[in-house]
Write a structure and sequence with these properties.
By secondary structure, the chain is α/β, with parallel strands linked by helices. 47% of the residues lie in helices and 16% in strands. The chain is built from eleven helices and ten strands. Helix 1 packs parallel to helix 3, helix 5 packs across helix 6 and helix 9 runs antiparallel to helix 10. The structure holds coenzyme A. The site of coenzyme A has 16 residues, from helix 2 and strand 6. It comes from Autumnicola musiva. This is Enoyl-CoA hydratase-related protein. Belongs to the enoyl-CoA hydratase/isomerase family.
């Protein structure tokens, strides 16, 4: 598949999606959001793709936000539509993606860029990364899930401060905030992400899908996550992966999960 704004590469189970509009610091215009949706939808069906690594091209930016030039003349109704469509097509889609999604933040992750990283299942960053939700400095608020996911991850007070000040935090502060799980030197970032992906791929990806659902249920309004956990736990017992995982353990050999 040919894309204008992203690069999609696959190797040994790892699908790397690189947002590639370096002249605009990888800002998310509508076309990029549509391409990302398509790449994720393809990855869902692609049996070769086990884990997704999402990153930005170059050393300067992961994604410097939604493309401001596209929405500066929008009406309230168009603004609402922009947020609703983006959330449904990309941000919620990534958050609920059945395969692990790791955001490898290689530089600025601002506004929609940080929101995209927040939608990923977890984040790692290079030591030059800078993160923030600067929307109020533009007279708007985060619209791609940032007001919901940032406080879930860093806590309400820190999210309030980050959003109100529109400031940026560096990678080490992000680590302290639990916004990212690890910080690496810039050249090591993708290797580090790949090592994590390899560790993940040794386990049952079917069980991991269930775990993603159950963990996400904790953050869904009106959903009892414990009930989701019970459902998903039960579902695992009917899978070939469960049969393989338990019998491999009992026979003292390494499991070789069929992924079913
Ligand atoms: N939307 C559209 N274009 C963007 C962009 C965005 N969110 N972020 C950066 N760009 C563009 C710039 O307009 C510039 O394009 P140009 O060369 O055609 O003028 C190019 O990317 C390079 O950015 P520039 O501002 O020159 O780089 P810098 O190193 O001086 O500053 C930032 C980097 C990230 C601090 C600065 O680009 C910035 O503040 N970006 C906007 C961040 C933001 O508010 N995001 C939230 C959007 S809701």
């Amino acid at each position: 598949m040919d894309y204008n704004n992203i690069i999609v590469e696959i190797g040994e189970g790892i699908l790397q999606i690189t947002i590639d509009r370096p002249s605009k610091l990888n800002a998310l215009n509508k076309e990029t959001i549509a391409e990302l949706h398509e790449a994720f939808a393809d990855a869902k069906e692609d049996e070769e793709a086990k884990v997704v690594i999402l990153t930005g091209s170059g050393e300067k930016a992961f994604v410097a936000g939604a493309d401001i030039s596209e929405f500066s003349d929008y009406s309230p109704e168009e603004g609402k539509q922009l947020a609703a469509e983006g959330q449904q097509k990309l941000f919620d889609y990534v958050a609920n993606f059945p395969k692990p999604v790791i955001a490898a933040i290689n530089g600025f992750a601002l506004g929609g860029g940080l929101e995209l990283a927040l939608a990923a299942h977890f984040r790692i960053a290079s030591d030059n990364a800078k993160m923030g939700l600067p929307e109020v400095s533009l007279g708007v608020i985060p619209g791609y899930g940032g007001t919901q996911r940032l406080p879930q991850i860093v806590g309400k007070g820190r999210a309030m401060e980050m959003i109100m000040t529109a400031g940026m935090i560096d990678a080490n502060q992000a680590l302290q905030y639990n916004l990212v799980n690890h910080v690496t030197e810039q050249p090591e970032l993708l290797n580090f992400a790949e090592n994590l992906a390899e560790k993940i791929m040794k386990n049952s990806l079917v069980a991991i899908s269930s775990a993603i659902k159950a963990i996400n249920a904790n953050f869904e309004a009106g959903v009892n996550g414990f009930e989701t956990e019970i459902e998903e736990f039960g579902r695992c017992f009917g899978t070939e992966d469960f049969e393989e995982g338990t019998s491999a353990f009992l026979k003292k050999r390494k499991a070789d999960f069929p992924g079913k």
